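Support request from a user on the community tier.

User writes: "When I paste my C-alpha cells into the form, the page sometimes reloads and wipes my input. The last time it worked, I copied everything first. Here is what I submitted, just in case something in the input itself triggers the reload:"
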C-alpha cells in the first residue's frame, strides 16, 4: 500500500537541492499562542521561489531540451505550496517516486493532492481538499484510492469521505493479544474495497452532528493455514453500516493543524437487513489536541478508542498498527473487539518547507473492558521527515519502532 512505505532518497535529495537554491526569506513560522483568532483560517505570506537565471536573448539560440525540462520541474515543485485556490477551481499537484517497506518491498507510488473552494470569495474557512493515491509493488500488492474533506455554505456543512481498493499479500496472526504475540502467522492474499462517508452539520460554532455510512468488502485468498480463521467464520465478508456522530472541531486546518481541539464520538450499526451476516455495532472515540510550545514547534496529542459489540467478523475487528497510530506495528497483527491507544507527537519546523517529528505512544487490544490487562499494553516511538508540497499539506516519511518490530511509512497529510 501507499501507507507504510518509505519515500526514496532520490526524491528527497531532489527536493533538498531545489529548495536549498532559494534565497528568499523564510516562510511565516507556525502561529504563536498569542496570535489572535488562532482557530480561523487566514492565508499567510507565501514563499515565492526566485526566478531562474535568464537565458540570453538570441534569436539563433535554442534552449536545450534538458534545460527546458529542468526549468519546468523547478518551477512546478518550488511553487507547489503557494495557495492558488482563490484563482483556480482546483489547485492540483502530483508527486511520485520509488519506495521501500518491510511489508511490500520495492514499489512505485503516486499521489495527487488538490485544494479547492466552492466559494472562492469566502476566505473565512480553510480550503477543501482531495487526495488521489496509487501504488504498485514488487510483491504484487497494489492500491487505488481517494479521500478528502469538502466545506459547503461557509462551513455550515461538511462532507468527509474516503474510498480505497487494494490487493496485497498479508499475514494473519489470529485474534487477541496472545495471537499477535505468537511468532508464527498465516500467509494469505487480501482483497478489499471500502468506502466511508460522513455528512456533518454545524449546530453551534465548532459543534457538529452528522450521519454516516460505510461499506467494506473483504476476501481472503490462497490461505496458507485455513485453521487460523476463527471457527465458524468465512473467508469473505460484506459489511454495510449506518450511524451518526457528534463532534467538536476548532482545528485551524484539518490536514496540518497548528492549534485547536478535535473531539468525536461515532456510532455505527451493522444490521442483517443491510447484507451483514450477523448484527454488530461499533463505537469510535477520538480526542486530539494541538498547541504551539515554542517557535516553529507544535505539540499534538491523540487519544483513540474503537469498540465493537455483537457478532463481529474477524475482518471488522479493531486493528492495531498502520500509518496513523501505533506506527511501527504491522497493521492487524494485534486485533480484537476493543482497542485503546494514545500518542504524543512533537512537530518541529526545520528549514523552509521541511520539518521533522518525533513521537511516543501506547496501545492495547482486548475483547471487553472486564478483560483489559494493562500488562498487554504495547509501546511505539519513532521519528519522521515532513515536506510541505502544497499549502498546509505535507508529504510524510516515518520510521516507527515497537516491541520487536520496525516499520517505514510514506503518506500524505499528518498522521492525525
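"...and here is what came back when it finally went through:"
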Amino acid at each position: 500500500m501507499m501507507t507504510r512505505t518509505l519515500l526514496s532518497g532520490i526524491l528527497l535529495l531532489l527536493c533538498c537541492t531545489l529548495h536549498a537554491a532559494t534565497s528568499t526569506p523564510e516562510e511565516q513560522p507556525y502561529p504563536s499562542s498569542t496570535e489572535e483568532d488562532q482557530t480561523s483560517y487566514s492565508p499567510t505570506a507565501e514563499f515565492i521561489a526566485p526566478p531562474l537565471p535568464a537565458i540570453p536573448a538570441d534569436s539563433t539560440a535554442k534552449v536545450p531540451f534538458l534545460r527546458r525540462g529542468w526549468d519546468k520541474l523547478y518551477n512546478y515543485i518550488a511553487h507547489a505550496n503557494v495557495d492558488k485556490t482563490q484563482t483556480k477551481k482546483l489547485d492540483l499537484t502530483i508527486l511520485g517516486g520509488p519506495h521501500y517497506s518491510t511489508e511490500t518491498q520495492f514499489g512505485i507510488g503516486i499521489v495527487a493532492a488538490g485544494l479547492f473552494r466552492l466559494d472562492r470569495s469566502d476566505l473565512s474557512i480553510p480550503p477543501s481538499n482531495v487526495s488521489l493515491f496509487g501504488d504498485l509493488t514488487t510483491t504484487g500488492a497494489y492500491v487505488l484510492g481517494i479521500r478528502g474533506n469538502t466545506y459547503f455554505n461557509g462551513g455550515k456543512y461538511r462532507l468527509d469521505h474516503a474510498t480505497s481498493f487494494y490487493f496485497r499479500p498479508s499475514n494473519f496472526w489470529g485474534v487477541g493479544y496472545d495471537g499477535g504475540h505468537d511468532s508464527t502467522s498465516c500467509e494469505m492474499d487480501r482483497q478489499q474495497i471500502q468506502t466511508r462517508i460522513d455528512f456533518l452539520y454545524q449546530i453551534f460554532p465548532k459543534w457538529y452532528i452528522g450521519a454516516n455510512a460505510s461499506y467494506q468488502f473483504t476476501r481472503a485468498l490462497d490461505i496458507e493455514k485455513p485453521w487460523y480463521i476463527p471457527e465458524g467464520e468465512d473467508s469473505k465478508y460484506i459489511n454495510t453500516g449506518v450511524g451518526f456522530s457528534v463532534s467538536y472541531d476548532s482545528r485551524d486546518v484539518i490536514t496540518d493543524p497548528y492549534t485547536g481541539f478535535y473531539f468525536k464520538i461515532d456510532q455505527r450499526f451493522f444490521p442483517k437487513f443491510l447484507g451483514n451476516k450477523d448484527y454488530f455495532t461499533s463505537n469510535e472515540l477520538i480526542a486530539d489536541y494541538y498547541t504551539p510550545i515554542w517557535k516553529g514547534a507544535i505539540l499534538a496529542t491523540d487519544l483513540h478508542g474503537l469498540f465493537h459489540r455483537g457478532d463481529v467478523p474477524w475482518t471488522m475487528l479493531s486493528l492495531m498498527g498502520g500509518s496513523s497510530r501505533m506506527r511501527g506495528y504491522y497493521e492487524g497483527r494485534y486485533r480484537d473487539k476493543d482497542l485503546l491507544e494514545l500518542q504524543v507527537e512533537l512537530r518541529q519546523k526545520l528549514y523552509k518547507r521541511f520539518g521533522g517529528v518525533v513521537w511516543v505512544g501506547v496501545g492495547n487490544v482486548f475483547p471487553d473492558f472486564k478483560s483489559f490487562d494493562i500488562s498487554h499494553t504495547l509501546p511505539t516511538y519513532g521519528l519522521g521527515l515532513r515536506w510541505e508540497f502544497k499549502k498546509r499539506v505535507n508529504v510524510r516519511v516515518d520510521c516507527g519502532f515497537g516491541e520487536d518490530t520496525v516499520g517505514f511509512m510514506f503518506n500524505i497529510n499528518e498522521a492525525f
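Agent notes: The reload is a front-end session timeout and is unrelated to the input. The chain has a mean pLDDT of 84. The helical segments are 9-20, 65-78, 176-181. Escalated to web team.
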